[in-house]
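Ops channel
N.P.: pipeline sanity check, posting one input/output pair.
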């Protein structure tokens, strides 16, 4: 059984000085991939001076 992987860098639409992570935006992106059969492997946040800028999401699914 082999798997394939996909990585998406989700850039947040908020201003860079917004310290709140937009979890709704992240949920929409993750759920969109899940409905296409992808499973989340990991999510890593990128920050600038402590402010969230983007989320790097890694997914996998069976070939």
């Amino acid at each position: 059984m082999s798997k394939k992987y996909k990585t998406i860098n989700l850039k947040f639409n908020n201003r860079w000085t917004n310290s709140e992570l937009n979890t709704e935006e992240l949920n929409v992106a993750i759920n969109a991939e899940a409905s296409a059969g992808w499973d989340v492997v990991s999510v890593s946040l990128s920050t600038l001076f402590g402010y969230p800028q983007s989320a790097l999401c890694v997914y996998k699914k069976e070939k």
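N.P.: looks fine end to end. Residues 3-62 form one domain.
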